[in-house]
Amino acid sequence: MQILVADDHKLVRDGLKPFLQELDPGADILDAATLSEALQAIEGAPNLSLILLDLMMPGMDGLDGLVQIKAKVPNIPVVIVSGYSTRDHVVAAVQSGAAGFIPKTVSGTAMVNALRLVLSGETYLPSSSFFEDPANQGAQPIAPKPAAVPPPFDRLSRREGEILAQLVEGRTNKEIAIALSLQEITIKVHLRNVYRKIGAANRAQAVRIALQSGWIMPPVIN
C-alpha cells in the first residue's frame, strides 16, 4: 500500500506517519509539500491506495487542486485533512470528489478509524461539533442543525450518546470516565447498553456503525 500525504507542513506530514502505519505497518508513506509535488508523486506511485490532501498548500487554488488530482486518479480516495472546516468547505470538497474531510483537531485514533472507513468504500464527514464559524475567526463551534436522530441511535440515552461520541474519538474507558466525571465501571455498564441498542458486538464494531451511519451527538435542547 502507498499513501500520499500532501501538506506543506513537514511537522504535519511526519506526525501523521505513525497513525497511517496503523492502517498497514508496511505502508509506503509518500510526501508532497505542493500541488506540483503531489502530482509528480502520483505519477510515480503504481500502488497508491489513499491520498491525504491539505487544501491550503501552495498551488492548490482552492478546490482546483483536488479536481486535478481526481482527474489523474479517479479511483483513488482523496481525503481532505484541514485545520479549517466550515459546512460549506466540507460540502464543496465532497462534491468535488473528496472521499472524506477530517479536521486536524481530531485525535489520531479517530483519524485512523475514519480512514479505515474511507478505505472500505465509505465517505467520512466530520461531526458538526468540528465546524467552525468564519464570523468568529474560526474560534467558536457552530451549533449543529436540529435533525432527527436516526435509528437505532434514537434508543440511546443522553449519557449513552455522550459515551459513544467519546468512543468514536478513540478514547479509552478510563479517559471517558475522567472526561465525564464517572467511575470506569459505570462506563463499562453504559457501553454494554450502547452495544445492545445499536447492534454492535464490541467496541470496534460500535465505532464503525456510528461512522458509517453519519451519526453525530445531538445538541442539548434547552
Task: Tell me the CATH architecture of the largest domain.
Answer: 3-Layer(aba) Sandwich
Full CATH superfamily name of the largest domain: Response regulator
What count of structural domains?
2
Approximate shape: elongated
Radius of gyration: 18 Å
Q: Summarize the helix and strand pattern as letters.
A: EHEHEHEHEHHHHH
* Estimated structural class: alpha/beta
Would you count the extended β strands for me?
Answer: 5
Q: Runs with pLDDT <50, length 5+?
A: 129-147
Q: Please outline the major beta sheet.
A: 5 strands, parallel
Strand order of the largest sheet: 2-1-3-4-5
Tally of alpha and pi helices: 9
CATH topology of the largest domain: Rossmann fold
CATH class of the largest domain: Alpha Beta
Strand residue content: 5-15%
GO molecular function: DNA binding
Protein name: DNA-binding response regulator
Modified residues (4-aspartylphosphate): 54
Keywords: DNA-binding, Phosphoprotein
Notes on the protein architecture:
The chain has 222 residues and is α/β, with parallel strands linked by helices. It has helices at residues 10-23, 35-43, 64-72, 87-95, 108-119, 158-168, 173-180, 184-198, 203-213, and strands at 2-6, 28-32, 48-53, 78-82, 100-103. Strands 2-1-3-4-5 form a 5-stranded parallel sheet, sandwiched between helices. Helix 2 packs parallel to helix 3 (64-72) and helix 6 packs across helix 8 (184-198). It holds the Pfam family Response_reg. InterPro entries: CheY-like_superfamily (IPR011006), EvgA-like (IPR051015), NreC/VraR/RcsB-like_REC (IPR058245), Sig_transdc_resp-reg_receiver (IPR001789), Tscrpt_reg_LuxR_C (IPR000792).
